[in-house]
Specification:
This is Phospholipid/glycerol acyltransferase domain-containing protein. It comes from Kribbella sancticallisti. InterPro entries: Plipid/glycerol_acylTrfase. The protein has a 7-stranded mixed beta sheet with strand order 1-7-6-2-5-3-4, sandwiched between helices. The protein is an alpha/beta fold. The longest helix has 22 residues. The chain is globular. It is 41% helix and 12% strand. The protein starts with a helix and ends in a 15-residue tail after the last helix.
């Protein structure tokens, strides 16, 4: 009898998981957009997130982030954080810019920031992904303090500027979407435009190992508590008269230098920056399996860093 109950329980769990994998959780189309007949797009309404920055929501988010989110994150992965002293050079709101290859990137940034800065940080999230259903929009807004930003067509929400004016830091992933193979994609100019337009600094962040820990397509980190490195850099300030088009490459280069520093040493990376010889973080010109293999090399402790790929 007991054996039968155990088998029944296992079968039930297996069935629930199978249904969950096949369930349509959002409103995204199930067939390619090119296979659907053209229809004039309906005017979409912007999901309001101002309520998520009210005192009551902030108090709830503090419990969720410091308690559940931080505990689950550190149970599943092993974050190695460096460069936090660079954040002391920032006074006032800033745009926090990081490379993006995993859904782990947002929790990693929020859970490694100093508490005072984290409490005043909001995250730009794709409107067509995180705000396509009310329950996903509500959950991401309350837990991560997200706000919708349109990534198609290069349109920018007015919210980032409003938040900066109110003293909030804004996290932006300039690649627009997660990397398909763990290597850094081309940075768009949105973050640079926001910084130049509002005269605020940019804090570069290099995240290494999050793709190996939870690549695109996975809903949970891989077993084994893999190490993920989060490295903060010195703030970048737009020069007087510098345009967003001119500022954007400096932001991308700063993030690339942090990833190079994580792969080797601070001294070697600084010498390459000074010589203008920092290795590209776009990965090898090779087959996809090779690119994925290179980007999933385990993070090693300080002093045992491997050579950067050239």
């Amino acid at each position: 009898m007991g054996t039968s109950l155990v088998k029944f329980g296992r079968d039930t769990v297996k069935d629930v998981r199978q249904v969950a994998r096949g369930w349509r959780w959002g409103r995204r189309p199930q067939v390619p957009r090119s296979a659907e007949p053209y229809v004039i797009p309906k005017e979409t309404t912007v999901f309001p997130t101002k309520w998520a920055r009210k005192p009551a929501a902030i108090a709830v988010r503090e419990v969720l982030q410091k308690g559940a989110l931080n505990s689950v994150l550190r149970f599943e992965v092993n974050p190695q954080v460096s460069g936090l002293d660079s954040l002391r050079k920032v006074h006032g709101p800033a745009v926090i810019v990081a490379n993006h290859s995993s859904h782990l990137d947002t929790p990693l940034v929020l859970c490694t920031l100093p508490d005072e800065m984290r409490r005043k940080t909001a995250v730009a999230a794709a409107a067509d992904y995180f705000f396509d259903t009310w329950w996903r929009a509500t959950a991401s807004a309350i837990v991560f303090n997200t706000f919708p930003i349109e990534r198609r067509g290069g349109k920018l929400s007015s919210t980032p500027g409003d938040l900066l004016e109110d003293g909030w830091n804004v996290v932006v992933f300039p690649e627009g979407t997660r990397s398909p193979d763990g290597w850094m994609e081309r940075f768009r100019m949105g973050a640079a435009y926001i910084a130049v337009e509002h005269g605020v600094p940019v804090i570069p962040v290099g995240i290494k190992g999050s793709f190996a820990a939870m690549p695109r397509g996975r809903g949970w980190p891989v077993p084994g508590r893999p190490t993920v490195a989060v490295r903060y850099g010195d703030p970048l300030y737009p020069a007087e008269g510098e345009s967003a088009r001119e500022f954007a490459p400096r932001i991308s280069a700063a993030v690339s230098a942090l990833l190079d520093e994580e792969a080797t040493t601070w001294w070697e990376a600084r010498r390459r920056v000074a010589a203008g010889a920092s290795p590209s973080q776009s990965g090898p010109d090779a087959a996809r399996w090779r690119r994925v293999w290179e980007s999933t090399t385990p993070i090693k402790p300080a002093g045992q860093k491997r050579r950067a790929w050239k």
